Amino acid sequence: MNSFQSVFRSDLFQGQTIVVTGGGSGIGRCTAHELASLGADLALVGRKIEKLETVKAEIAQTCGVKVSIHSCDIREEEKVTATVAEILAEHGKIDHLINNAGGQFPSPLSSINAKGWETVVRNNLTGGFLMAREVFNQYMVKNLGKTDMSITNIIADMWNGMPGMGHSGAARAGMLNFSETASLEWAPVRVNAVAPGFIASSGMDTYPEPMKQTIMQLDKTIPLQRLGLEAEVSGVLAFLCSPAASFISGSCIRVDGAAPNARRIWPVGTGKQNPVFNSFHLGGVPEVIQRRDAERAGKK
Ligand SMILES: CCCCC/C=C/C(=O)SCCNC(=O)CCNC(=O)[C@H](O)C(C)(C)COP(=O)(O)OP(=O)(O)OC[C@H]1O[C@@H](n2cnc3c(N)ncnc32)[C@H](O)[C@@H]1OP(=O)(O)O
Ligand SMILES: NC(=O)C1=CN([C@@H]2O[C@H](COP(=O)(O)OP(=O)(O)OC[C@H]3O[C@@H](n4cnc5c(N)ncnc54)[C@H](OP(=O)(O)O)[C@@H]3O)[C@@H](O)[C@H]2O)C=CC1
Fold first, then answer.
1. Closest CA to 229 of 87, 56, 27, 67
2. Buried b / exposed e across 202-220, counting CB within 10 Å, b at 16+?
3. What is the pLDDT of residues 22-41, one digit of tens each?
């Protein structure tokens, strides 16, 4: 049932076609619901067609938009080429691509063999590149300047490294640089990245238990002290497709509750629970400010 309540106006994407890879679950599914609720026709891509059929049926219950579904492993070059052609045959256009499909198997670096490394790099770097290249070559390059078009690549907030995710982190770093280069070569198509942090979605179920327990020490890991919501990622994706983002390209938007800002040395939170915060407000800083104010007053 599509009861999605977007903050954007309901006809924002009327007449536009948006491709969402990995649209059958989690963030991709939520994004499909949000974009459909804003009038977009959708092409949903994923490996398991049943998952895509379910999302299509959910959307059909409340939205009259056109939704096509396409079984495709984004790592297979020929399949990607054929899938983009299939989407264009059905919709006639692609205004925006949301490269969301991805994932990995958590493993320490020392246990990853070449096949496993390549599997994950293909899933999180090569696949996104192939999708973007085909959408650009088959449609966008022929329509430059006619309308605002964009490509958004979902990466992951793994700055400074993340144990168990070395293969995926390397691929996501590559995807960020790919986005930056594509924003140069493919302008005026806007190409951006979105880096979710810890989001309460189906993807989280794939993390090993100790990793989940570490993440869930929310007072230490995430300054906003909660997991993100799928809708908090899909809202940013909708924004990047919208005219409100028409001068944003080559950027990466983090959606992570400030997690990377929570360096180990700084306790997070405010008020009595945070000794560093207290040390400012009960000690030095107000005295300094009082002295400064007194000096200023004396000069008047
Ligand atoms: C702050 C942000 C941090 C969070 C960042 C990330 C969050 C998320 O990504 S959430 C989304 C999570 N969802 C997933 O990760 C699920 C998606 N994963 C998969 O679909 C698969 O694991 C896959 C696509 C990555 C691989 O599937 P497949 O292509 O079917 O590959 P195989 O199973 O055939 O394996 C190929 C090859 O890879 C190695 N390998 C696979 N699994 C493992 C494992 N558990 N441990 C070690 N190595 C593994 C291995 O070399 C396999 O070859 P064989 O040995 O010949 O089987
Ligand atoms: N949840 C989180 O905390 C975070 C998630 N991310 C990233 O956000 C994206 C969405 O994650 P989330 O919704 O949580 O996880 P999910 O596992 O629910 O979604 C991933 C989707 O990608 C599809 N997919 C995976 N590999 C391929 C492939 N080779 N070809 C086509 N489709 C594929 C899957 O469908 P199917 O199996 O049918 O192919 C699935 O629907 C992923 O890229 C993920 O890595 C990043 C940071 C944090």
1. 27
2. bbeeebeeebeeebeebee
3. 999 999 999 999 999 999 99
| Domain identity same for 143 and 83 | yes
- CATH at 44: 3.40.50.720
**Beta strand residue intervals within 250-289, DSSP E:** 252-255
Residues 288 and 253 in one domain: no
Q: For residue 78, what are the CA distances in angstroms to 83, 118, 259? A: 9, 18, 39
Residue range(s) defining the domain that contains residue 298: 270-300
Closest residue CA from atom 12 of ligand 1: 203
CA separation for the pair 52, 66 (Å, rounded): 14
The pTM (predicted TM-score) of the whole model is 0.92
| Co-location of 291 and 226 in the same domain | no
Pocket test for ligand 2, best of 19, 34, 47, 78 (most atoms within 8 A of CB): 47
Same domain flag for 158 and 282: no
Q: What is the ipTM of this complex?
A: 0.97
Q: pLDDT digit string (tens) for 164-189?
A: 999 999 999 999 999 999 999 999 99
Q: Give the C-alpha separation, 34 to 234, whole Å.
A: 7
Q: How far is CA 153 from the centre of its chain?
A: 7
Distance CA 47, CA 201 (A): 18
Residues 6+ positions from 129 with CB-CB distance below 8 Å:
175, 178
Mutating to test ligand 1, I would choose from 31, 73, 104, 204 the residue with most ligand atoms within 8 A of its C-beta, which is 104
